[in-house]
Amino acid sequence: MNAAPAATAPPLRSGRLQTRKAAWWTSLVWPVTGLALLLLFNLIFTEGFFHVEVRNGRLYGVLIDILNHGSKVMLLALGMALVIATAGVDLSVGAVMAISGAVAAQLINRPGVPFPAVIAAATGAAVVAGCWNGLLVGIFKVQPIVATLILMVAGRGIAQLITDGQIITFTDTHLTYIGNGSLLALPFPVWLSLGMLATTLLLTRKTAIGLFIESVGDNQVASTYSGIHAGTVKFLVYAFCGFCAGLAGLVAASNIKCADSNHAGLFLELDAILAVVVGGASLTGGRFYLAGAIVGALFIQTLTTTMYMRNVSPDIAPVPKALAILAVCLLQSPVLRTKMASLFRRQA
Amino acid sequence: MRIRLSGKYIRLLATASVLVALYVLGCVSFRNFGSLGVLVNLVGDNAFLGVAAVGATFVILSGGIDLSVGAVVAFTSILIASLVSHGVSPLAAISLALAIGALFGSLMGFLIRVFELPPFLVTLAGMFLARGMGFVVHPQSLGITHPFFLERVNEGLAISLNKDVTFPFTATCYVVIFLVAVFVAHYTRFGRAIYALGGDEQSATLMGLPVGRTKVLTYTLSGFCSALAGVVYTFYTQSGDPASCVGLELDAIAAVVIGGTLLSGGVGFMAGTVMGVLIRGLIYTLIIFKGDLNTWWTPIVVGLLVLIFILLQDVISFASARFATATKQSSH
């Protein structure tokens, strides 16, 4: 400790880099352990859970279904992770999913509209919705819960307005491919989520944006003094969250080949928040773990699928989910951690 | 000090003027909108939302949030319906449901207080739990045929205003609960502790207020109010339904915000929330009277109103802060 500073300086620097790397891995330990425990339970008790077979060059099986159905929450969780890192929350992602699905279904049935334009319009609408949230939170400094509550309440109404209150079905093969197609043996939504994960990781970890997001969430005043425009960072983060919700909305609509404004993405905002929290992030902001959020989303989907496979009624399914939330919250609670620590110390 | 007080009342005044404006708009645009029947129905139809919003107001005043409201209402309604259909006496069923609601709220409050967990997540878990438990009690909606609910209470306790219009029992419940809530919020030690806690938790602790107890009790009260709203719901619909009231908590929060209560806690009035509930009901009634508009306009208009009131809060606090500094400078 008391060695010459010149000698200790280089190892200290590399040591800091190593702790940064170690922190990244340790953040994944708990979510992965949870997922592994759940899978272990299914390996022993649920028959056919790990059965995977190849049909027409595509993998089929429960595990593939989990990846496929979990992709919506995975996409949402990526955007939500960044929003929560700025100490915010976005309650409107479910409603934004409904809007993007409604726009896509409405346009694809119109003759003469090219497919890329449909995708651009649907995701564009979602980004506009995200920008609206960003404007309220970042520029007008409205509390995130309230600001996004507005779009959560009004968004489904807007989606109903777009579809004129109807459930709009479509048969366009390009659009149905997004939710049902497969690429290299895996369902397309899985590739979409993985692609978005890679893009988001690159954007946040290879540029300074990730650091900006974390610093704004950690201490907004300090980051303002160091020259970061907190409002702009928040605006961008909510816009990105809207974009992710738009993609999830396309997957959801494409999956069932129709836009159902009442039920598309209903309560998925809660699943997305839960995925981020399971992934190791705190709702008070300052940190985000994208890989953790993805594992969290898979954890939730595995939990849901497990209950379906074990013939638990989907209506009762919220109960185990609630217990999972409480368990995760308690594990993260610093109060419980210090209490447990002092308990062990006393015994020793 | 006087300026801050007036800012508080300006918000209440803004809510009141929106309420009056909507009502006058309805009366001018449609025949019979001003009739007593419409007014009574407005109170009666929104009674269970109103009771739930009372609980939400207490929680928001204390600086917290409760997302479990709608699920607890649904759980209570199906619990009462199922108990009564199994031959339990209605009064016993209602008391049991209220006790469970309060216990449920206090458990959430306990987790929030002792383990310092975020209220958002704890009450989210509470919402999932109550929703699922409702389906465990009974998987579908269940009608109540017990004479206590229809003849003895709904018809027996309705107050006849004139030969056409009766003031329903659910509306009476709402009025009574509102009056009790005003008393608790403004004239008891507990009510003042809630305001202090919402204003600044640290100062409340330093003043020697029982912060922990108040926090747990606030969530207990909210759980109790949600259960009470569930009781009003069973009287209103003569049934219990585990799938009902999805998103009721958001309507309640929206009503609280429109009522001028700050979501950061510490500032607001119970009367504002009542007006917020009535404004929401009036928008719905207006859309029904208009006939050619679809009901999905209700959430859009409610969303817009929430937005307007939030921006109004910003403008008022900004203006009053500037006014305060201006007067301070001129007095020096």
Structure description:
The complex is a heterodimer of chains A (348) and B (332). In chain A, helix 4 runs antiparallel to helix 10 (230-256). With 348 residues, chain A is mainly alpha-helical. In chain A, 73% of the residues lie in helices and 5% in strands. Chain A has a single domain (70-322), classed as ABC transporter involved in vitamin B12 uptake, BtuC. Chain A starts with a helix and ends with a helix. Chain A has helices at 5-45, 62-85, 93-108, 115-139, 144-163, 173-180, 188-205, 209-218, 220-225, 230-256, 268-278, 290-309, 318-332, 334-347; strands at 52-55, 58-61, 168-169, 182-183, 186-187, 258-259. In chain A, the strands form 3 sheets. A two-stranded antiparallel sheet of chain A has the order 1-2. Chain A has 14 helices and 6 strands. The longest helix of chain A has 41 residues, at 5-45. Chain B is an all-alpha fold and 332 residues long. Chain B has one domain. Helix content of chain B is 76%, strand content 2%. Chain B contains 14 helices and 4 strands. Chain B has helices at residues 2-29, 36-45, 47-61, 69-85, 90-114, 119-137, 147-155, 169-187, 189-199, 201-206, 211-237, 248-258, 270-290, 297-331, and strands spanning 142-143, 159-160, 166-167, 239-240. In chain B, the strands form 2 sheets. In chain B, strands 1-4 form a two-stranded antiparallel sheet. Chain B has a two-stranded antiparallel sheet with strand order 2-3. In chain B, helix 12 (248-258) runs parallel beside helix 14. Chain B is globular. Chains A and B meet through helix 5, helix 11, helix 13 and helix 14 of A and helix 6, helix 12 and helix 14 of B.
